[in-house]
Design a protein that fits this description.
The chain has 387 residues and is mostly helical. Among the domains are: 58 residues, no CATH class; 93 residues, Alpha Horseshoe (Serine Threonine Protein Phosphatase 5, Tetratricopeptide repeat), CATH 1.25.40; 55 residues, Arc Repressor Mutant, subunit A, CATH 1.10.10.10. Helices cover 76% and strands 0% of the residues. Helix 14 runs antiparallel to helix 15. The protein starts with a helix and ends in a 9-residue tail after the last helix.
């Protein structure tokens, strides 16, 4: 176990993981005492979480749960191990059990004189997903008081409340302070959401690029899926729905393979929006309805509320097959703006604007910006008279 963890820290992930698996074979075969078995279980699960090796973490956490159930008289494990079990249950969508275990972890950590910041943070996350705002805020406060930063969860709570400036300022500060890769990954993943909500595409792209570099370093399915989703979201915001869909589909495949329901629900929202942008309105609705089923099963009230608004909003395909973004670009063309000015206004590259303009001309069978302007006024996409 010790050699395996050291090798992983040194970057020799394959050899290190192989040794951890060998240690777990000895444990599950009953070759070691209960004290050693408990120590190895907790250590290996901790090592899995350091790399976000969710598949192995789930496997060994389930084995630990079975092992504990077979030894009811055994002294309860360190609260830290309980915290890892809560994280796995969160990923698996077992929110009621996760909340119960998180509260138990708080009690055990308090009895042992240890800080319970991570346990309080997970309690806050469960409340946030369920839409229990006051309870979430209190749990984040307790996490902070115990020395655990309440980010990125608190910033995401603020984002849901419309406090965009506060969310961006807090995450920007914490991202600047954090160096550890696992913690930085979580922060950057949330930061992409906040940056895109504030319309800062260049900063969101930079964050997504850093997530990709972390994924390359850690190289586990979960982290690769986080990277693919971030890249897909940035592409979608930039108006490249086709590239976005490819990345988002990769993320979806991984989420399904390792069975993390909440992430499945999130990524299908973005897939649905990408389908809409490509004119596949019915396909987009199917994707959004998939997310609705997942969120309803989890009781993710805040996500469900936002999703219902999307399902009842007009589809993106409008005006002879133009996407919503293309209509937006067309309006700006009609207002007399250059591609460079449009790129600045929409926080996208000139290359992306040029692609939108080309698509508009092709779909509407137009040959000039003047013709596009005339079309926009004729179909009342802008008010007034063309100049």
């Amino acid at each position: 176990m010790g050699q395996g963890r050291a090798l992983i820290r040194l970057g020799e992930r394959a050899r290190g993981t192989m040794l951890l698996d060998e240690a777990m074979v000895a444990v599950t075969a009953g070759e070691v005492s209960s004290v050693i078995a408990g120590t190895v279980y907790c250590s290996v699960i901790s090592a899995c979480f350091e790399r976000y090796d969710v598949g192995r973490a789930q496997e060994w956490t389930l084995a630990l749960s079975r092992w504990c159930a077979a030894q009811p008289d055994l002294v309860a494990y360190r609260g830290e191990c309980l915290v890892y079990r809560v994280e796995i249950k969160l990923l698996r969508g077992e929110l009621p059990d996760a909340l119960q275990d998180a509260r138990r972890a708080c009690e055990q950590l308090a009895l042992s004189g240890m800080r319970a910041g991570s346990a309080h943070y997970l309690i806050a996350e469960i409340h946030r997903l369920h839409g229990r705002i006051a309870e979430a805020e209190e749990a984040y406060r307790l996490a902070s008081a115990a020395g655990r930063t309440p980010q990125p969860g608190l910033a995401l709570l603020w984002l849901a409340q419309g406090r965009l400036d506060a969310a961006r300022a807090a995450l920007g500060r914490v991202v600047g302070e954090t160096r550890e890769l696992r913690a930085r990954l979580r922060l950057l993943d949330a930061y992409v959401d906040v940056l895109l909500s504030s319309g800062d595409l260049p900063a969101a792209r930079a964050a997504a690029d850093e997530i990709a570099s972390i994924a390359s370093a850690l190289d586990t399915p979960f982290v690769n899926a986080v990277s693919a989703r971030a890249t897909g979201r940035v592409c979608l915001a930039a108006g490249d729905a086709r590239a976005a869909l490819a990345s988002l589909r990769r993320a979806s495949t991984i989420w399904h393979d390792i069975d993390v329901p909440y992430e499945i629900g999130r990524v299908h929202v973005h897939i649905g929006l990408a389908c809409r942008e490509l004119g596949d309105v019915d396909g987009g609705r199917l994707e959004l309805e998939t997310s609705r089923r997942v969120f309803a099963q989890l009781g993710a009230a805040t996500d469900l509320e936002r999703l219902e608004a999307l399902l009842h909003s007009p589809a993106s395909r409008t005006h002879d097959g133009l996407t919503a973004r293309e209509v937006e670009v067309l309006r700006l063309i009609a207002s007399g703006k250059t591609n460079r000015r449009i790129a600045t206004d929409l926080h996208i590259s000139e290359k992306t604007v040029a692609r939108h303009v080309s698509n508009i001309f092709t779909k509407l069978d137009l040959s000039s910006r003047a013709a596009a302007t005339a079309y926009a006024f004729k179909h009342q996409l802008v008010r007034g008279e063309p100049t």
